[in-house]
Sequence to fold (486 residues):
Amino acid sequence: MFRTASWILLAAYAVFLAAHFASVPAGSDSSVYFNGARLLAAGKMSTPLRTIEGFNASNPWVYTPHGFTPEGASPGLTPTYPTGLSLHYAAGALLLGWQWGPLAVAVLASVATVLLTFLILQELGVGRPLAIAGATAIAVSPLFLFVSFIPMSDVPTTAWVALAILGALRARGSVGWAIIAGMAFSVAVVIRPTTAVLAPAFALLLGGFRPVGWACLGAIPGAAWQAFTGVVLYGGMLRTGYGAFGDSFAWENAGPSWRNYAVTFPYVLPLGLAAVLLAPWWPWKTRAREGVALAAMAGGLLLFYSYYNVTKEVWWYLRFVLPVFPVLLALALGGLRGFLERRQIRGGGGQPAWIVALLVVAICLVPAVRWSRKQHVLLMKSFQEPYAAAGEWARANLPQGSAVAAMHLSGTLYFYSDLPILRWDLISTEDVAALRRMLTGSGRSIYAMVHPFEGDATLREQFPWRWEKVTEVEGVVVLRSGGEAR
Fold:
């Protein structure tokens, strides 16, 4: 009965996720995963520059949409983001198409994270009631839902880390689980290379040289792929498209980031704070190694990303530490189970345990609902749909041989059309003058597409010509100019 009800609830949750997921290459993050996936599905890792005939730009960045770099080891444009999520999307698209493939990947990753969180908690002996409460806590988290509704790498990374943790907990008695743990951890690193900072704690969790050895064997394919793509795309096995490490991390970011943790965690994962308060009641006598390893995982990733230059900015940038949400739940509920046992309250089953579990769910659910409403989490799909509408309009209506100037929409338009994309935020004054001479001399026109939040003031300042409004597509303004003076 319990298993049947559980699968029904998971299926209903999957339907809920699918109904709210925006399978759209929107913005810089989502578009690079889609564009990268399309390259991989075609057996490519880079793509030639799309240039405007008759116009020789002085800088290849002028033709570079969001999520690409012209300075990789391969000629043309190479994606700046790791290939892991794009590989998932490419596989999904080859099986189900570009609309349903990424959606299936996203839903499976979210559901798997919830299920694996439950299994981790069960493996740690917190009992079924608290394991259900923990799985529910991550399922309703506003941050988890936020990144479950858009094409991002956070939830897939979390799912693979959770599988690695489950495998590590079972590895001491099973070669198969040790290999699975290593494979899962390597996939998480391929999706997000910074996951590698968890490696020492992960090795401790495996609990011995033999499990670590088998896990390393399981990690070989993922490590080989990461090294291969690093060499082909960026010129070195350990290189990525992110640029120099020091450009994104700084000591002064730590204080504001920890303040953001303190302010945001009570809404997105209240039990994250409880993990610290309940630490004295963790079963240190029987699970000291697991406790130290899990604490090192959580603390290590939180500390690492506290130096990142965006973690301090807004609540949803805590998505970078989402992979340790199951870990924080394990520490909190393991400590709560120990607390209950010391007070002779049955935590593993029976009415008292279910009452405590319901209280835990309420503690997580009430702030989650309030925060989701305040931040409009359930409206994420509607926020992404204008990108798809604009991209489809451009593909259907912009003439072949034309070009389109864009900034925030550049990655989206690159995916939907075959037209050259001109980055109006990166073009120089000299190139603007050369482009104008080409347009006025040939009688050709250039188009521009401006997202609502950008406004067209910067575009008109960058290109001080006469611009004619062509149409508006769900708030995206489409303009056209032949370079004529105002």
About this structure: Residues 32-36+83-375 form one domain. The chain is about 60% helix and 5% strand. The CA atoms of residues 127 and 348 lie 4 Å apart.
